[in-house]
Amino acid sequence: METIRIPNSATYSPVALTDLIFAAPLASRLLIGATLPGRLVQVAAAGAYIGCAIGDWASRRGVRKIDFLETFSADVQNMEEMPGSRRHEDIRRFSEELMDIYAPVKRGRDSVAADVNERLTSYIAGITGQRVETSSAIRNVTLARFMMPFAAGSCDILSGDVAVFRPSGVFEPHILAHEFSHRKGYLKELEAQALGYLSLSTSRDPQLRQSALAERVYRNLRVLDGDDPQRYGELLDETPLSGDVLEDFRRLRPPDRGTGVVSRAMKEMYDQRMKLTGQNGLSDYDRGFTNFLYTYENAVA
């Protein structure tokens, strides 16, 4: 089988290069009272960043991407609307399956990331006949967390830098699979959601599979709650979820979460950015993702 290796050199830097580019002058000013050292660091980081991005771009030119419509009978612009009754059925069915197989993940984050990356690589290779090997390095701290307070993780599409912003319990393997899909060149959010789910849900590792199930249940809940945290809590109480899993679902969308001005503005900007790139907006994370699965599963039934 052909193998394409994308270096993702930037992901091995101790500090995110983009953080150095933006923060070095300010940090230099605050710490030593002069901006010149920070400017020098900024220029060096920018040069390294550009070099890493060019190296990754050159490697990606040989990648055979999945044609979603041909492979799954659905893509960003071609999906059937999932009926509300089916969403309730999905929530019940996959919540029960999740609780049947659930076990707390004892492995460290780096170990989980390596397993998720290998599973995603193998799944894509099974479709394209090509292994696209990428870094499994992840960050816990990055400035992107403050720019996107509503997000659980991020991926810099130029450098491949991936960050997970907070512990997410059962959801974390899927968050990693989503971001690693971006790292492999799948830039649309719905495609990353779908590849993350399909790769993990077909894994022999129950701890990867349970994360995919949790994501599917959560996204259906988000469609049904109508962006109302209180309604989300009511729907959650009707599920068979319990224990640590239930707490993970509550933590991901707490009932008392306020929506600040900055967060609202960033979400609106991100929604418009997605639409400008041929996507449907933030709805691709939940409504689009679940409609995609509904369409695909109807096609293969």
Provide a short characterization of the protein structure.
Helices cover 60% and strands 5% of the residues. The protein has helices at 17-32, 36-60, 68-72, 84-101, 109-128, 144-147, 172-183, 189-201, 206-224, 229-237, 243-252, 261-276, 287-300; strands spanning 2-5, 130-133, 153-155, 162-164. Strand 3 (153-155) and strand 4 (162-164) form a beta hairpin.
Number of beta-strand segments: 4
Low-confidence stretches: none
Q: Work out the oligomeric state of the chains in this entry.
A: single chain
Q: Mean of the pLDDT scores?
A: 88
For the sheet with most strands, the description reads: 2 strands, parallel
Distance between the termini: 30 Å
Please describe what this structure looks like:
This protein is mainly α and 301 residues long. It folds into two domains: 2-60; 70-300, no CATH class. 60% of the residues lie in helices and 5% in strands. The protein is globular. The mean pLDDT is 88.
Key terms for this structure?
mainly alpha; 301 residues; two-stranded antiparallel ribbon; globular; 4 strands; two-stranded parallel sheet
Topology of helices and strands:
Blueprint: E1 2-5, H1 17-32, H2 36-60, H3 68-72, H4 84-101, H5 109-128, E2 130-133, H6 144-147, E3 153-155, E4 162-164, H7 172-183, H8 189-201, H9 206-224, H10 229-237, H11 243-252, H12 261-276, H13 287-300
Parallel strand pairs: 1-2
Antiparallel strand pairs: 3-4
Helix pairs in contact: 1-2, 4-9, 5-7, 5-8, 7-8, 8-9, 8-13
